[in-house]
Specification:
The chain is α/β, with parallel strands linked by helices. Helix content is 39%, strand content 12%. The protein has a single domain, classed as Metal-dependent hydrolases (TIM Barrel), CATH 3.20.20. Helix 6 links the parallel strand 6 and strand 7.
Length: 281
């Protein structure tokens, strides 16, 4: 889609799904605004309006079959620059599955759905080590779908695997209530200082809810900017999940407002160049 010499603009967190596939365990009819099929043809007009050139498609189901599904979409869609898929990292077959999937050059990362795993210590079990090592050896990124309660363990995990290219999704989904800020802020600061992880600037509006206002996002935005800096933040829309709290353009507008004090170069890093580095695009 890019047609000029300006920096690449990338939305690094998008989902596509077809409900009839039947492996979206978290998807229920009460999620009215997103309980339907979403594909590239639905997203393209929003990308054009927002001047976004490329996207990263991220898994939405804990199955290899769904990863293969979005890899096929990537092959047929000009504006898809990469896919973050899923593999059962606890399986003895994880290294072989990763090697097979990575033969497709569109695979750029792996994301276990940690937020949905009942065992909060799951990520620290030794059975994951071969899979984690394979992710690093294959040059893939590791996307972390976590909540604040996982952050201390995540810091332990990343210190155990310093060679992993890590991307924390959705600012770790903070509870946007003021009384929950300090604990999240402390743990995110520790992760930024002790690891080389990137952080996705995404998902905040969904955590606030449908009646969000831009100023409700400012305190958390300022903190992740202070911790990770413009060189380690990556813009993502989380479309179509963002529809639960608004729409694509509303989040783009809010992000532009929240980052308006940054330089042109710093905004270019967040809105594209950091995704190029993190996902080796």
């Amino acid at each position: 889609m890019k047609t000029n010499n300006r920096p690449r603009r990338i939305d690094a967190h998008v989902h596509f799904w077809e409900l009839a596939r039947g492996d979206y365990d978290w998807m229920t009819p009460d999620l009215v605004d997103i309980y339907r099929d979403f594909g590239p043809e639905h997203l393209r007009p929003y990308l054009t309006a927002a001047d976004i050139d490329e996207i990263i498609v991220v898994q939405a189901a804990a199955t290899v079959a769904e990863t293969e599904f979005i890899l096929r979409i990537a092959e047929d869609t000009d504006f898809v620059s990469g896919v973050v898929g899923w593999v059962d990292l606890a399986s003895p077959e994880a290294p072989d599955t990763l090697a097979r999937l990575s033969e497709n050059p569109n695979l750029k990362g792996i994301r276990p759905m940690i937020q949905d795993i009942p065992d909060h210590d799951w990520m620290l079990q030794d059975t994951l080590t071969p899979g984690m090592q394979s992710i690093a050896q294959l040059g893939l990124s590791f996307d972390c779908l976590v909540r604040p309660l996982h952050l201390k363990n995540l810091c332990k995990l990343l210190n155990r695997h310093p060679d992993l290219q890590v991307i924390i999704n959705h600012c770790a989904k903070p509870d946007m209530a003021d009384e929950s800020f300090d604990s999240w802020a402390k743990d995110m600061k520790r992760l930024a200082e002790q690891t080389s992880a990137f952080c996705k600037f995404s998902g905040l509006v969904t955590e606030v809810g449908a009646d969000w206002k831009t100023n409700q996002l400012r305190r958390h935005t300022e903190h992740i900017l202070q911790c990770f800096g413009p060189d380690r933040l990556i813009f993502g829309s989380d479309w179509p999940v963002v529809n639960l709290a608004g729409d694509y353009q509303a989040w783009i507008n809010a992000a532009n407002d929240l980052l308006s004090d940054l330089s042109v170069h710093e905004r270019a890093r967040i809105f594209g160049e950091n995704a190029v580095l993190a996902y080796d695009l």
